[in-house]
Specification:
Number of helices: 14
Order of helices and strands: HEHHHHHHEHHHHHHH
Strand order of the largest sheet: 1-2
Largest sheet: 2 strands, antiparallel
Membrane topology: Multi-pass membrane protein
Keywords: Membrane, Transmembrane, Transmembrane helix
Shape: globular
Number of domains: 2
Strand content: under 5%
Family: Belongs to the NIPA family.
GO molecular function, one term: magnesium ion transmembrane transporter activity
Protein name: NIPA like domain containing 2
Length: 383
Amino acid sequence: MAVLAPAGPGDAASAALDELSLNFTYGAPGAGNGSLSGDWYRRNQIHLFGVLLAILGNLVISISLNIQKYSHLQLAQQEQPRPYFKSVLWWGGVLLMAVGETGNFAAYGFAPITLIAPLGCVSVTGSAIISVTFLKDNLRASDLLGTTLAFAGTYLLVNFAPNITQAISARTVQYYLVGWQFLIYVISEILIFCILLYFYKRKGMKHMVILLTLVAILASLTVISVKAVSGMITFSMMDKMQLTYPIFYIMFIIMIASCVFQVKFLNQATKLYNTTTVVPVNHIFFTISAIIAGIIFYQEFLGAAFLTVFIYLFGCFLSFLGVFLVTRNREKEHLQQSYIDFGNIPGKQMLDKIQPDSHSLSYGTLPDGSDSTKSQSGEKKEV
C-alpha cells in the first residue's frame, strides 16, 4: 500500500507551474501572423468577444460624454440655470458612462491587456463623430484623417495582438505577483512615483508630463488589478469559484485605490492645462503603461514573432496619431461671442443694442452716433 507524503512548497510551486502552462493556449504554427482566415477567427473567438465588449463600451462612453455636454449646454441657456446634478439628462449620461466602463471591465476578462487598452481611441474618435453629427460641431479635415488613422490602427491592433488565451485564476495571479520580472518592475515604478511625487508636492512642479506620468504609473496597477479581478470572476463563472481566495480582494482594493488617485491627478492636469492637450497625451501614456504592464506581469507577448510585434506597435502609433488629430485645436472653436449681451444681466434693462444686426444699414456704427457727435461738436464750439 503506497503512502502519500504531504505536499511541500516545491510541490505547490510545481502545481502552480503546471496550471500556468495549461492556462496558455497558443494558436497553431503561424499564429500571430495577422491572417484574417477562418482558422484565425476560430482561434480568437474569446478575444473577439472581449474586443466587441471594449468597442461597444467605448462607444457608449462617447455617447455618455456628449449627453452630459448637451445637458450642460441646455442648462447654460436657461435664464436661471440649475445645478447640473439636478438634470435628468446629465444623470442619464452618467448611467451610460457606468454601463460603458462595465463593458471595458468585462473585456479584460476575455482578452489580453495589450489588445483592450489601445482600444480607448474608439471613445475619443467616437465622441468627435457624435458631436459633429448631433451637436453640430464643425467637421474638420483633421477629424476625418484622425478617425481614418484610428480605425486603421484598431484593425492592426485586433489583427496582430498576442494570440494567447489565458485563464486567470487566483493561483495564476499569485504566481505572477512573486515573479522576479514583476518585482523589479513594481520596485522601479515605486521609486519613479516617489521621485515625481516629491517634485510635485515639495518643489511645486506641476508640469503636465509629471502629472500624467503619475497617472500612467497608477494606471499600470489599475489594468493589472482590473484584469485579475475580471479574470477571476470570469473563471468563477466558467470553471471553479475563485472569489474565496484572499488575492481576489487584495486586487480589488488595489483596483479601487489606484483608480481614485489616478482620477485625482488627472483632474489636476485638466485644471492646469487644456483638455485638447491632456486627452491625447494621457491616452498615449496610459496605453504605453498598460502595454508594458501586460507584457511584464501577464507575459502576453511571450513567443510572439518580431513582425507581429512591429505591426502591433505601428497600429498603436496610428491610433495615437488619430487621437491627436481629432483633439487638436478643438477648444479654440468654441470662442465666446465678440460682444456682450447686457440683457442677460439680472436687474439691468437693455436700452439699445450694443452691436446692431449685420443685415441692417447701421451695422458697424455706434448706437445714437449722430447725437453723440453733435454733443461733442457743440461742446467744442462753446469752448
